[in-house]
Fold this sequence. Notes:
The complex is a heterodimer.
Chain A: H1 2-25, H2 34-39, H3 45-55, H4 61-73, H5 87-122, H6 127-140, H7 144-158, H8 176-210, H9 213-220, H10 225-237, H11 239-263, H12 268-277, H13 281-309, H14 312-315
Helix pairs in contact in A: 1-13, 5-6, 5-8, 5-11, 5-13, 6-8, 7-8, 7-11, 8-10, 8-11, 11-12, 11-13, 12-13
Chain B: H1 3-15, H2 19-22, H3 25-43, H4 79-115, H5 117-132, H6 135-145, H7 151-178, H8 181-188, H9 193-229, H10 241-248, H11 256-284, H12 286-290
Helix pairs in contact in B: 3-4, 3-11, 4-5, 4-7, 4-9, 4-11, 5-7, 6-7, 7-9, 8-9, 9-10, 9-11, 10-11
Amino acid sequence: MARYLARRLVTLVGIVIIISVGAFYLIHLLPGDPATVILGTGDSPQNRARLYAQLGLNRPIIEQYFVWMKNVLHGNLGISFISQVPVWTTIRAALPIDLEMIVLSQILSFAVAIPLAMSSAKRPDSWLDRFLGAFSFTMLSIPAFILVVVLVLVVAIKLAVPHTGVSSYVPLSQDWVTNLESMALPSIVLAIGSVTVYYRVLRSDLIATLQQEYITLARSKGISQRRILWRHALRPSSVALLGTAGVNIGGLLAGGFIVQYLLDIPGLGYTLVNSIGLSDYLVVQGIVLVVSIGVIVINFVFDFLITLVDPRIARE
Amino acid sequence: MSSSLELSELVEEATEAPDGRRLGVLFWVCVGWLALNLLAAILANVLPLPNPLTQDYNAINAGPSLHHLFGTDDLGRDIFSRVVFGSRVSIEAGLGSMVIGFGVGAPLGMLAAYRRGRFDQVLTVVMYVVLAFPAIIATIAILSFWTPRTLLKIIVVVGVAAIPLVYRVIRTATLAVATQDFVVAAKVQGASDTRILVRELLPNVAPIAVSFLLIGVATVVTLEGSLAFLGLSVAPPTPSWGNMINESRTILQLNPWLALFPSAAMCLFLLSLNFIGDRLRTHFDVTEGKL
């Protein structure tokens, strides 16, 4: 187990290093002199000097990476030349909102997907199973941005439910009840996408597990269906589910971008889109770095969870 | 599974009508819908459609009518025409990037699975490292820095991001076939590597490849929509489904048609792709088909 995790950790560090190289190199994709493009209208001798100190632009490119990396490791992602705010400050303000959205949507997703998958797997090919299969398949084909537009139209505009519309975000620190209300719609949108995926993965694994002999034995001992599903079948069926969840949450970050942007929720995605619009390249670079590393770490955590569920995986 | 199950399947297979009917009516409805979309996109210039950029000042935000089938947008442009022309961006992005992804990923995946050894090991490690990258974020990042943005750049970035995914799927599919007896038999008979790859392995991998390709196109169409919302897709006034849905947000109450029609077009297109892809996969994959 420890060896397995150590090996995964080494891979993790390797990938983070590669990501940092990628994020660093982004500014060199800009057409022309990166300093001129990044500074934009803020091109003054002081700003130029500040940018050169941050990025080491007058040095060879390999040295530039180490200058930048050293700054990054000190928590210095540069200062935005548009807003005059340090990039890290901007990210630190936005990040908790993304985390809240993901946690809420995932609690919701598992709470819905697990019982649904169980009721399907209990009787495959029943009308309920067929209906859920068709329904989840349809939902799988509806992009998050269309769901948001439709839900805003129906819930916020037609039904006029308070605190669900565009720009109704209230920070958690201000009023947690209103905050939860304003986070409901985006969390539900993200959850719908996750539920369909989780439901399908868990359903097919549960069906396979329920055909195992130890389940037949448990049945013959007279153990209730509910207990068999929750205590005997769920754990061995959830390896693929956890793997999918790890990958899915990474995808959610990107899907969350759109949802945040559409609903004016000032998370990382919202900030990213605005920064792209303003050509605020240092902020974009910082967010890309932080989010990429976040995704990798989430994958690592889920790999770890899988080894807890099925320790045999770590032994291989 | 039990032998009785296999037997019943064999009987079923023998008594079933030819492949065509087993795929189901819905399958062919989806194929027809895709064909219609494709045809409309190709022939958009020839069809009797109003110019998607022409503004009709007498019909701003008009509802559907005989003159404008799907109504008009806030600039008086014909929504039906824009939906048809907009499908071009989605289809081009989807197919273009999959051409890159499959063009590179599929041959490499087949070769790696057939050759095995050092070649396979090195390639697989490289691909898995690339896969660990959050592809969507990398795409957004590259497109936001690599200005000016064009459809070709989107296709290239997404296509390259798809290579490791295609590689993994095709490699796994080939591995399952490459060890089977008929491949060994071909080798014993002295068939060349090229012949085995093309004549023995390819026909067995192709169905999985096609179904994955369709689902890949669906994913890219969704991605193009997302990029449009981030302002990273083709620049207005060029219509794309994503652009149109994005533009509709500000006037949702005033003109719901503008959101409805491109959304419906996109959803139906995605649903057809996913359905066909999924059907093909279960049709050719015996183990999954049993569930």
